[in-house]
Amino acid sequence: MPWDFYIPIQLRSYLPHCEPPCDSDCANSNEISTMGGLNLEVAKFGMYVMFPIGIMYYFGTNLDSRFSVPEFWPKAEHSNKVPFDREEISAELERLRARRLYNRERRLAAEAKQAQESQSQSQQDNQS
């Protein structure tokens, strides 16, 4: 069979020996069909190479005007400034410490208030 060289030798004994499928047109004709030839292969190669390059060129040029959202990024005055000097770092640490202590005081006051309310609620339930 002409297509046996595609099948490994170990598997040939397991496969039934039959002819490859064929259309009714090719069974009656002795004509050998050819593919598109060199021009088709050159055209396909050009398409395979130029399509990704074209996509990259389309999406890679003029990005600022095509895909930008106005005022998406914050301005420099609205963004955080990273401290580099020793004084700026210590001032930032003091600010963070004060904020943490303020939040802790608020949390403790809320917990105390909640505990007092639950205690008064339990006392009212015991009296009734």
TrEMBL record:
<dbReference type="GO" id="GO:0033617">
    <property type="term" value="P:mitochondrial respiratory chain complex IV assembly"/>
</dbReference>
<keyword id="KW-0496">Mitochondrion</keyword>
<dbReference type="GO" id="GO:0005743">
    <property type="term" value="C:mitochondrial inner membrane"/>
</dbReference>
<dbReference type="Pfam" id="PF09803">
    <property type="entry name" value="Pet100"/>
</dbReference>
<feature type="region of interest" description="Disordered">
    <location>
        <begin position="109"/>
        <end position="128"/>
    </location>
</feature>
<dbReference type="InterPro" id="IPR018625">
    <property type="entry name" value="Pet100"/>
</dbReference>
<feature type="compositionally biased region" description="Low complexity">
    <location>
        <begin position="111"/>
        <end position="128"/>
    </location>
</feature>
<keyword id="KW-0809">Transit peptide</keyword>
<keyword id="KW-0812">Transmembrane</keyword>
<dbReference type="GO" id="GO:0051082">
    <property type="term" value="F:unfolded protein binding"/>
</dbReference>
<keyword id="KW-1133">Transmembrane helix</keyword>
<keyword id="KW-0472">Membrane</keyword>
<comment type="similarity">
    <text>Belongs to the PET100 family.</text>
</comment>
<protein>
    <recommendedName>
        <fullName>Mitochondrial cytochrome c oxidase assembly factor</fullName>
    </recommendedName>
</protein>
